[in-house]
Fold:
Amino acid sequence: MEETSVHEIDFTLINEFFTELERQGPGSAQESIRALGFINHLTSNAKIADLGCGTGYQTFVLAQNTEASITALDLSTSSIDKLNKKAVHLGLQNRVKGIVGSMDSLPFQKEEFDLIWSEGAIANIGFEKGLNYWKDFLKKDAYIAITYESWFTQERPMEIEKWWKDAVPEINTIGHNVSIMQKTGYIPVATFILPETCWTDHYFVPQKARQVEFLKKHAGNKTAEDMIAFLRREEDLYAKYKQYYGYVFYIGKKL
Structure:
């Protein structure tokens, strides 16, 4: 039986499924705070862009651990609505603003930001393309901090190689990605691998009940069933091959 490709999944269904979850991808508050520790000079005048923010889990980690103003951008209107409501609920609406938009057509001024942040989203436009394009919106000596799917080894089993090459055609090793950061005009400040709990406890486990509820709601809808099968396959493959790949935080400083 042929597997569903991530590119065949309906965006509306993905959006409906994930907007009800706290996180839309692997990660944790602890690891976001760890990455933030490598970034200097985020005063109350600083401006941060969180690109591909989803419902803003990490946006609020940034807001609660800096004094900066944050503009969070995502394609999903429902995600941005949820983010802006949460900002009001937390009394952060003066510093946190969600807007609907695309990461490859940013509505910002050149050299506007002190930090561009993006967790689990740059693959949607390409690692090198994203680093190149986003750099224009950073001030000199400003920072970029992103998580990106990466190989931990030079070689890996064909099954997982094939699955990830389909999902993220540019996927490569940490060393290669650091060299791309340098090539695109950044000083690599830090890289670190997200721990397994960022996948298991913070991404896969919260999906379990949601998957059951989602299948019940969309009973008989093959597209919805294929999407849940894809997500379950993702979890199975991670359990089997997690020593070969994962998300890596890449932190760079614009030259």
Summary: The chain has one domain: 24-195+243-254.
